[in-house]
Amino acid sequence: MARTTFSGPVASTNGFIGNIAGSGSITHGTTAAINATNTATAAQVATGWITSTSAAATTITLPTGTLLGAELGAVKGTVFDLYIDNSGGANTVTIAAATNGVVSTAGVDTAGSFGDLTVASGATGLARFTLMFSSATAYAFTRTA
After folding, report:
1. Cβ contact 76:136 at 8 Å
2. Do residues 134 and 140 touch, judged by C-beta distance below 8 A?
3. 14 within some domain
4. Is residue 17 domain-resident?
5. 49: domain range?
6. Above 50 in pLDDT, residue 1?
7. In sequence order, which residues have a C-beta less than 8 Å from that of residue 13 and are 6 or more positions away?
8. 20 inside domain
9. What is the mean pLDDT of the chain?
10. 38-39 and 118-119: which strand pairing?
11. How many domains does the chain have?
């Protein structure tokens, strides 16, 4: 592994930083609540964890690629994980795409798994979506858990 210098607080497990598989747990210190059908702001998505406790069916539309890319400082190759927590909700949450945000080819080809854009309520109401930027202003997303 190459030598790297950091400043500020950095947590590393086995030389890896961030949410690399097997590198340890991830804690989201800030979360965003969306409890009614709405478009998520780029700042809400940037928290990485959105909760919903709605009793009604809720659709969360992701922000445009331009807005989200700017918020995250994205470039081609940026990968970002977004968790949706509907464990306190009483109805389904559906994730929808916005301009310059599309469901990935894997999601389209396997709609029942990688393309499943609904998050059940209750104890099983957790999902992870991975957003992959093809440029600073466009992303594809896939359900990865």
Report:
1. yes
2. yes
3. no
4. no
5. 32-143
6. no
7. 23, 24
8. no
9. 85
10. unpaired
11. 1
